[in-house]
Write the structure tokens for this entry.
Amino acid sequence: MRAKYVLSEVAVGLWRNISMTIAMIITMSVSLTMLGAGVLLYFQVQSMENEYKGDIQILVYLDKKLDKGDDQTEQVRQSLQKDKASGLVDTFEFKTKAQAYREFKELFKNAPDLVQNTDPDRLPANFGVKLTDMSLASKFESKYSHIKGVERVFNQRDSLDKVFGLLGGVQKLALIVALVQGIAALLLVANTIQVAAYSKRREVSIMKLVGASNWFVQAPFVLEAVFAGMLGSIVAFLALVAAKAFLVDGTFKNLFAILTPMPWSRVILMLPILAGVASLISAITGWVTLRFQVKV
Amino acid sequence: MWHPPHTTRVDSRSVIRLEHVTKHYTRSNRPSIEDINVSIEKGEFVFFIGPTGAGKSTIIKLLLREVIPDKGKVWVNNKEVTRMNRWKVPSFRRSLGCVFQDFRLLPHRTAAENVAFALEVIGKSKTVARRVVPEVMDLVGLGGKEHRYPHELSGGEQQRVAIARAFVNRPLILLADEPTGNLDPDTSIEIMRLLDRINRTGTTIVMVTHDSNIVNQMRRRVIEIEGGHMVRDQARGVYG
């Protein structure tokens, strides 16, 4: 009887204030969509870091005139050998100028003009080095960039960091929009509950008079907010599904092909996360609002 | 001006006790009360009388724990309400019934539904409501009008519904704040007869009024409040 009463009160409450309910659902869904996008981007960055972390090398490019068997090449090799023995370097491999050119041709096989116009001699021989601890990269770089015969030391991580930086920026933007919209949504929830509590002040005063427990008085209002939050999270989830279908797998398919793929399971995981966040925050806002509105 | 002695009768039969109760409203013009000492026994029928603004209704608010006194102690049903936790207030209020001048009925519920509402909110089942509500409606003389809405009932009938709602949980104490304030003299007498019947079942009744006719006819205990002070406590009193 009580559950039925509470549920019917929720339905009546939402319907009575329908324009406010819709406004609440819209702002909440925009906020949650942004939150979902932010979380998905976070996952994306994490998975990319995991994927590339193992493969990152530091490339020690030699002078263009050096190749296999030259004295200076051998000096660099010996230095790397020493550092391997001391534990700084994990592994290293040498690529001759010819190997470097072959790799270049393979990488740019779709751009024959570029390959044709590139002189094989312009590609330097290099050592691909993996460190035991990539945080020591700057120490390694400063040491090897001063060794004779070394043209340039390049950490692959630096170019990857640019991609991470871009994704991180988009993620931050999404989270800021989520936060601002979230605040608007919370204010709307608080206001909706205040209006609902005011329009039902007679019932509430009678309920309190006859000894209704606090939860019984407050439950319909809190559930109203939670219900609107859940609807908002469903709309937000559908927006994320559409974004995955039409943007990630559609318009920006090529971009995401370079990055690590974004599986559907990760998008589907957003539904419980968003629904949980929305209902929890709505419930807390509702309860806090009522604490100052509906006093015993 | 007569001042009551500052000693409180300690009686195990007392269901309401106010000890040196003072309440001031610093931020509003609501009437204050000063050093009130009252003890009310089980089954008594007590009138609180006095001019408008004397502080009579503040006493009802204190008994309901809608307000807390600045000084002194309030005991209701052997519970010190002044020190009661907020979360215990709802269950405490279930031992009280309340009736007001403005009836306070839910306009979109029938008479029977208004009465059942009091059972509903404290978790009683529909079976209990189906059994108890008609009994109480008969008791208040509204048998046959259960399905009428408040606007279809006269003022006296609406107050009967309110009394039925207050009494349906068989409270030990019934608090009535100017219950006849909106009613004509004849209807007021009917309501008083009903309250008297309820009193005879053993329910303690505390009624705030400034209706001298009623007080003079009933000849029950009269406590007079004036300017927040208790100026008279008379066993079978008249309005004065």
